[in-house]
Amino acid sequence: MLKGFKDFLMKGNVLDLAVAVVMGAAFTAIVKAFTDNIVQPLIASIGASPSNSGLAWMIKAGNKATEVNLSAVLTAIINFILIAAVVYFLLVLPYEKFKARAIASEEEPAAATEAELLVEIRDLLAKK
Question: Is 0.85 surpassed by the pTM of this model?
Answer without folding.
Answer: no
